[in-house]
Amino acid sequence: MRQGFTLVELAVVIGIVGLLLLVGLPRLAGVLDRIAVNRAAGELTTTLAVARNLAISYGMRTRVTIRRDSLAVDSLGREGWARWNAFPGPDTHGVSLAVSNPVIQYHGNGIGWGLSNTRVVLKRGSHSETITTSRLGRVKRW
């Protein structure tokens, strides 16, 4: 009765596993890029929705400041702009950021204030996603 494996059997199994990893790792990198960009885009669109809903709920101006390291939501009160909340930026996922207007403001009725039309491009590796905001406060992911 045999107990265990021979050295040749173990070498063959390790070789097959190594070959499968060699073939599968490039595909896995693309999947990881897609996941990271999708997460960063989801966090950005959620932050924009939070700021717009805050503006509508309290009837006050709000703004989102988009930076690589953070997404900040501020509200305009009697004493000026005050930080309401800050969320991690796309840099935490290793995603690069290109933004046409880094500050998006919402009026108390939810419509964009000032130069609110913005185009944000998030990219990592071969995967990218574009997010646009309109003056009416709409957000679209491409």
Topology:
Elements: H1 7-58, E1 62-66, E2 70-77, E3 80-88, E4 96-99, E5 103-106, E6 112-113, E7 118-124, E8 127-133, E9 139-141
Antiparallel strand pairs: 1-2, 1-5, 2-3, 4-7, 5-6, 7-8, 8-9
Low-confidence stretches: none
Mean pLDDT: 92
Helix and strand string, N-terminal first?
HEEEEEEEEE
- The helix content, as a percent range, equals 25-40%
Strand arrangement, major sheet: 3-2-1-5-6
Number of strands: 9
What is the terminal separation in angstroms?
63 Å
Q: What is the percentage of strand-forming residues?
A: 25-35%
**Biggest pleated-sheet summary:** 5 strands, antiparallel
List keywords for this structure.
142 residues; alpha+beta; 5-stranded antiparallel beta sheet; 37% helix; 35% strand; elongated
Structure description:
With 142 residues, the chain is of the alpha+beta class. Helices cover 37% and strands 35% of the residues. It contains 1 helix and 9 strands; from the N terminus they run H-E-E-E-E-E-E-E-E-E. It has one helix spanning 7-58, and strands spanning 62-66, 70-77, 80-88, 96-99, 103-106, 112-113, 118-124, 127-133, 139-141. The strands form 2 sheets. A 5-stranded antiparallel β-sheet has the order 3-2-1-5-6, with helices on one face. The chain is elongated and about 85 Å long. The N and C termini lie far apart (63 Å).
